[in-house]
Amino acid sequence: MRSTNPIFERLERENSVYTGAQSRTGVVTKTALLIGLALLSGFLSIYIPADILVGILIPVSILTFVASFIAIISRRFAAPAAIIYSVGEGLIYGILTHILELAFPGIGLIAIVGTLSVFLVMFTLYSTGLLRASSFLKKFVLGGLISIVVGSLLLSITSLINPAFANAFYANTSLLIAIYLGLIVFGGFMLITDFDRAESVVEMGLGKNEEWLASMGIMITLIWIYINLLRLLIVVMNDRK
User: Fold this and answer.
1) Is residue 130, in this structure, part of any structural domain at all?
2) How far apart (Å, rounded) are the C-alpha atoms in residues 199 and 212?
3) What is the 3-state secondary structure (H, E, C) of 22-41?
4) Nearest to 177 by CA among 239, 109, 123, 223
5) What ranges in the chain are assigned the alpha helix state H?
6) Structural domain of residue 11, as residue ranges?
7) Which ranges does the record mark as transmembrane (predicted)?
8) pTM here?
9) Three-class secondary structure of residue 165 per DSSP
10) Is it the case that residue 127 has pLDDT exceeding 80?
C-alpha cells in the first residue's frame, strides 16, 4: 500500500541502501526538533512589526512550498528543506494565530496543546501496538484524502456559483463542528500511517538524510491537525459570543 503522504511516497521509491542506517531515535529527535522550530518561529513572529509581517507572508508561503518540493525530489537537501519548511510554517501560522488571538483570546494555546495532545496520544497508541496501520486503515486514509480534495473543490465551485449556498453552509454551526472534528480525527489516523511508513523506512535501512524526510512527513500531518483545530475553535468560540 502506497503512502498517502507525498514525503513518504518519495521515500518508498528509494530502493538503494545508503551509508548510515536510519534509526527510530533519529526520526523522533528530528521530529521533535522540527516541532520546536515551528513553535519558536511562531512565537517570535509576535515581535515582528505588522508592516513587515504583511510583506513576508506571501514570500514565506512560496518558500515553504518550494522547500517541500525540494525535499521530495532531492534527499541531499532534505535537512535544510525540512528546517526551512518548519520555520516557514511556524511563521505563517504564528502570524495567523496572533491575528485570531485579537478576536478569540487563548485560541493559539488551545490549538497548540490540542495538536501536541493528538500527536502524543496517537504515538502512544502506535508505539504500544494498540493501534496499527492495517491495510484497511491505509485504504481508508487514502480514500479519505481523495474524498476531502474532491469535496473541497466541489464546495469551492458551488460557493462561487451560488454564494447563498456558501452562506448557509458556513452558518450551520453544528455541521461545521462535526466536519472539523472529523478532519481532526482523520488527521490522527494519518499520523498512524505516517508512523508506520517511517518505521518501514527505518527497517529498509535508508541513509541518515531520510530521517529528515520522515520527520518532515509527520510535520505536514501535524500542521493539518493544527489548521483544523483552529477552524473548530473559531466556530465554537464564535458561537459562544
Assistant:
1) yes
2) 13
3) CCHHHHHHHHHHHHHHHHHH
4) 239
5) 6-12, 24-44, 50-73, 78-103, 107-127, 135-161, 163-171, 173-203, 209-240
6) 6-240
7) 32-50, 56-74, 106-128, 140-161, 173-192, 212-234
8) 0.85
9) helix
10) yes
